Fold this protein.
Amino acid sequence: MPPPRRLGRPRTTDLREVMNAILYIATT
């Protein structure tokens, strides 16, 4: 799990993007 960023974006958003990427790759 990547550490929380200080750019103002919540870690949950980054985690969701990572999960979406993994699911996208897994389903294709």
Q: What stands out?
A: The chain has a mean pLDDT of 76.
